[in-house]
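Example 9 (inverse folding). The structure is encoded as follows.
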């Protein structure tokens, strides 16, 4: 389970805007079904509604948490999470 990383007001705004865009793009798509750009808008609006319901935004998560990767062997054990004050693990050149 993911921990919420956005507030309740932010979540309500995401849900309201997402449902508004989703309904608008659905109505437009019914009138002109050949426009693929409306499918993209529907998908993005659905993502906004989902992030509002879960109160979890992946972009906020990635901007708050910084990760370092070691390119030698890509494995889950080689991913380090660090705070701003910690030293960044630097892989040795091979």
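The amino acid assigned to each position is listed next.
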């Amino acid at each position: 389970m993911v921990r919420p990383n956005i507030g309740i007001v932010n979540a309500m705004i995401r849900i309201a805007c997402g449902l508004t865009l989703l309904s608008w793009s659905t109505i437009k798509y019914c009138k002109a079904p050949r426009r693929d750009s409306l499918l993209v808008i529907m998908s993005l609006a659905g993502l906004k509604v989902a992030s509002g319901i879960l109160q979890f935004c992946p972009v906020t998560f990635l901007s708050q948490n910084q990760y370092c990767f070691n390119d030698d062997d890509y494995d889950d054990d080689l991913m380090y999470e660090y705070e701003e004050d910690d030293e960044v693990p630097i892989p040795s050149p091979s």
